[in-house]
C-alpha cells in the first residue's frame, strides 16, 4: 500500500481479511471509520473484543453462548423437548430453524461438515459430543439438518451410522421445492429430489 | 437453424468483417497468419459464448479496442423466424460498466444456453492429440459430447469430480494416519453410484459413435485401405469385477461391479493415496484394422479417423438437437489429394461446414467450382469468383 500512512494501511489490511471483503471495500470501510466520531470507532473495537471474550461454547449443544451462561438459554429451557435433538452445521443454522417456531426440541451444533479436502474429518466436528448426549438413552429422535450438499450428506450419513445403535429414530430433513416457487424455475436437481421425496396426499 | 451471416467488429485481427455462408460447405483460404482460424473461433464464440483457445476473453478483442462484437444471423431453413445472436466481449480496458453479454434478438441470454438453437463442432490442429495424446484428451472429448446432450450426465460429471477430489483427499489423510478408513464408506457409495451412471453414459455414447464412424471413415479413406475397419472401444477400470461387461452397458450390473472392484483395490488405494477405480481412469480405444491407431496409423490415416470421429459427433448431436455447424481448421494440410477430394465430397452433404486451408488450388477444379471460397488477407474477407 504505497502512499498510505501505516495506521490506515493496517486497518485496510485487517478489514480485507474478512470474508466477502475485498481491497476496495476494505478501503471504503477504513475511510468511513476515519470520518466517523471517535465514539463509533471505540464502540466497534469494544464489540470486536467482546465477541471474543464474552462468547463461549455451550457444554451441552456446542452452540455459542454468553460467557458464564452454561448451558445455553435453549439447553436450559425446561419447556423445550429434551428428547429431540436437531443437528446443524453452524450457529446461524440454529437461528434459521428458531425463526420458524416449528421446532421445540434442542440443538447440537457441529461447527463444520466432513470435508477431507479441507482436512475436516469426524474428529474435527463435534460428533463425539453428540454421541455422548445420546448414549444415555433418553433421546427419542435425532434430526440431521446438515446442508443438502455433498459434504452435508457425508456428515449426515456418518452420523446416522454412529447414532443408529443409540437412538430410536434418526431422521433427515426433506429436500424439495421452495414454498411459493414456480416449478418451471426450479433447478433440475431440486425437482428430481422433490419427485423422489413425494408423499401421499393426506385427506 | 443455419448460419446465414457472420459479422465481426474489433475481433482478433478483424476491425470489421462480414462472411455470408451457404447452406453447405464454405472454404476460407489464405496464407498462414491471415486470420482464418480467427474466423472459425468467432463462430465458435458466437455459438458457445466461449473461446476454444483462451479463457481470457479480452484476448478476443482487437488490440487497443474497448470491446469486440460477434454477430450471428441465423435463418430457419423451414421458413420460420430467424434469430440474431450477438456476443459482446470487453477488451482489456473496457468502458465503465461493460460486461460480457450474449443476446438473442436483443434479449439478454445466459452465455452457453444456446444449445437448443444452434450448436457447433470444432476441429483444431491441436486435436490431433485426441488420438496420440493421453487418455484424458479422449475422456474430455466424450464428456464434452455427453454434457451437451444430457443435462443429467453433465451434472453427474461435475458431481463426480467433487466426489473424487474429496475421496482422494481422504485417502491421502488415511495414508498419513490422520484419518481412519471407515470414513470412506460414504465416498465409496457416491463413487459407485455416480461412477456407474457416467460409465453407462460413456459406453452408450461410444457405441453410438462406433456405429456411425465406419461408413464416414470409409468415405474418405482410399479404396485399398477399406479392409481396415475403424473400431471404437471403451477401456474401463473395473477389470474382472464386471463379468457382465460383454452383455452391454446395463447400469444395474455396473454399480455392484464398482463396489466389488473398490473392495478389491482398497489396500492399493490406501498405499497410493488416490482413487484407482472410476471413469477418471478409463479410456476411449480407437483401432484401425485391429491395431491401436496412436502407434500404428500414419498422420494422414489419423486425420481421416479424426474427421470421421468429428462427423460422427456432428451426426449424433444432430439427432437430438439442431445439427451442429462443423468448423474444420486446417484439417486438409496433411491429407493427400485423393483423401482431400473424397473428404470434400463427404462434407458437401453434411449440413453447414466451414473449412480453412492455405491453398485451395490443391482441390481439383471440378470440385472447387461448386464451393464458395472466401479469401482472407490484411484483415479483410473477399469472395473469390467461382471458376467457370
Describe what this molecule looks like in 3D.
The complex is a heterodimer of chains A (203) and B (388). With 203 residues, chain A is of the alpha/beta class. Helix content of chain A is 42%, strand content 11%. In chain A, the strands form 2 sheets. In chain A, strands 4-3-5-6 form a 4-stranded parallel β-sheet. Chain A has a two-stranded antiparallel ribbon with strand order 1-2. In chain A, strand 1 (55-57) and strand 2 form a beta hairpin. By secondary structure, chain B is α/β, with parallel strands linked by helices. Chain B has 10 helices and 15 strands. Chain B has helices at residues 36-48, 129-132, 135-149, 151-175, 184-220, 251-272, 293-296, 299-319, 337-347, 365-368, and strands at residues 2-11, 14-20, 25-29, 67-75, 83-90, 101-104, 107-109, 120-123, 230-235, 283-288, 291-292, 325-328, 353-357, 373-377, 380-383. The two termini of chain B are 31 Å apart. The A-B interface holds A 114-117, 119, 121-122, 150-151, 153-154, 157-158, 161, 188-189 and B 151-152, 155, 159, 162-163, 165-167, 169-170, 173, 178-179, 183, 185-187, 189-190.
Instruction: Output the number of helix runs of chain A.
Output: 8
CATH architectural arrangement of the domain at 77-200 in chain A: 3-Layer(aba) Sandwich
Question: Total number of helical segments of chain B?
Answer: 10
**How much is the radius of gyration of chain A in Å?**
22 Å
- Using DSSP, what is the number of strands of chain B? 15
Sequence of strands across the biggest β-sheet of chain B? 2-1-4-5-6-7
* SS-based class of chain A: alpha/beta
Uncertain runs of chain B with pLDDT below 50, 5 residues or more? none
Low-confidence stretches of chain A: none
Shape of chain A: globular
Mean pLDDT over the full residue set of chain B: 89
Task: Estimate the mean pLDDT confidence of chain A.
Answer: 91
Amino acid at each position: 500500500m504505497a502512499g498510505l500512512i501505516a495506521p490506515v494501511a493496517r486497518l485496510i489490511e485487517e478489514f480485507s481479511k474478512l470474508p466477502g471483503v475485498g481491497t476496495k471495500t476494505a478501503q471504503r470501510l477504513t475511510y468511513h471509520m476515519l470520518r466517523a466520531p471517535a465514539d463509533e470507532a471505540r464502540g466497534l473495537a469494544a464489540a470486536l473484543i467482546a465477541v471474543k471474550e464474552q462468547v463461549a461454547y455451550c457444554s451441552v449443544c456446542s452452540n455459542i453462548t454468553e460467557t458464564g451462561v452454561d448451558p445455553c438459554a435453549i439447553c436450559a429451557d425446561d419447556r423445550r423437548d429434551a428428547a429431540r435433538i436437531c443437528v446443524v452445521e453452524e450457529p446461524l443454522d440454529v437461528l434459521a430453524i428458531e425463526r420458524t417456531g416449528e421446532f421445540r426440541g434442542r440443538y447440537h451444533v457441529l461447527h463444520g461438515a466432513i470435508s477431507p479436502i479441507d482436512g475436516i474429518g469426524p474428529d474435527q466436528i463435534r460428533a463425539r459430543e453428540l454421541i455422548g448426549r445420546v448414549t444415555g438413552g433418553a433421546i427419542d429422535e435425532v434430526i440431521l439438518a446438515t446442508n443438502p450438499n455433498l459434504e452435508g450428506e457425508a456428515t449426515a450419513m456418518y452420523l446416522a451410522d454412529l447414532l443408529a445403535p443409540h437412538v430410536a429414530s434418526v431422521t433427515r430433513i426433506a429436500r424439495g421445492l421452495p414454498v411459493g416457487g414456480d416449478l418451471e424455475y426450479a433447478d433440475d436437481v431440486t425437482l428430481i429430489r422433490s419427485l423422489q421425496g413425494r408423499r401421499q396426499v393426506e385427506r | 437453424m443455419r448460419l446465414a451471416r457472420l459479422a465481426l467488429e474489433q475481433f482478433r485481427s478483424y476491425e470489421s468483417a462480414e462472411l455470408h455462408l451457404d447452406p453447405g460447405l464454405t472454404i476460407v483460404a489464405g496464407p498462414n497468419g491471415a486470420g482464418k482460424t480467427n474466423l472459425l473461433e468467432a463462430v465458435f464464440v458466437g455459438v458457445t459464448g466461449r473461446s476454444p483457445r483462451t479463457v481470457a476473453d479480452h484476448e478476443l478483442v482487437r488490440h487497443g479496442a474497448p470491446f469486440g462484437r460477434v454477430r450471428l444471423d441465423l435463418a430457419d431453413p423451414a421458413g420460420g423466424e430467424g434469430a440474431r445472436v450477438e456476443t459482446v466481449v470487453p477488451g482489456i480496458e473496457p468502458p465503465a460498466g461493460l460486461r460480457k453479454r450474449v443476446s438473442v434478438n436483443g434479449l439478454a441470454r445466459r452465455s452457453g444456453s444456446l444449445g437448443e438453437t444452434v450448436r457447433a463442432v470444432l476441429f483444431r490442429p491441436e486435436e490431433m492429440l485426441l488420438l496420440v495424446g493421453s487418455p484424458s484428451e479422449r475422456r474430455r472429448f466424450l464428456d464434452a459430447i455427453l454434457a451437451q446432450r444430457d443435462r443429467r450426465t453433465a451434472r453427474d460429471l461435475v458431481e463426480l469430480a467433487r466426489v473424487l477430489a474429496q475421496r482422494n483427499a481422504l485417502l491421502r489423510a488415511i495414508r498419513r494416519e490422520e484419518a481412519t478408513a471407515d470414513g470412506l464408506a460414504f465416498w465409496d457409495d457416491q463413487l459407485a453410484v455416480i461412477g456407474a451412471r457416467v460409465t453407462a453414459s460413456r459406453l452408450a455414447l461410444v457405441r453410438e459413435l462406433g456405429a456411425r464412424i465406419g461408413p464416414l471413415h470409409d468415405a474418405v479413406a482410399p479404396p485399398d485401405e477399406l479392409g481396415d475397419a475403424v473400431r471404437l472401444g471403451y477401456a474401463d477400470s473395473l477389470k474382472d469385477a464386471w463379468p457382465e461387461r460383454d452383455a452391454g452397458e446395463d447400469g444395474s450390473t455396473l454399480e455392484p461391479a464398482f463396489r466389488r472392484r473398490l473392495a478389491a483395490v482398497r489396500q492399493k488405494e490406501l498405499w497410493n493415496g488416490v482413487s484407482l477405480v472410476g471413469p477418471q481412469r478409463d479410456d476411449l480405444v480407437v483401432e484401425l484394422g485391429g491395431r491401436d491407431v496412436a502407434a500404428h496409423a500414419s498422420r494422414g490415416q489419423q486425420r481421416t479417423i479424426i474427421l470421421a470421429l468429428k462427423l460422427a459427433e456432428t451426426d449424433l448431436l444432430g439427432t437430438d438437437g439442431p445439427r451442429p455447424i462443423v468448423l474444420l481448421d486446417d484439417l486438409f494440410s496433411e491429407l493427400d489429394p485423393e483423401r482431400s477430394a473424397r473428404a470434400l465430397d463427404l462434407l458437401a452433404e453434411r449440413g453447414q461446414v466451414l473449412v480453412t486451408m492455405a491453398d485451395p488450388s490443391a482441390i481439383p477444379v471440378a470440385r472447387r467450382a461448386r464451393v464458395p471460397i472466401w479469401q482472407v488477407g490484411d484483415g479483410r474477407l473477399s469472395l473469390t469468383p467461382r471458376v467457370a
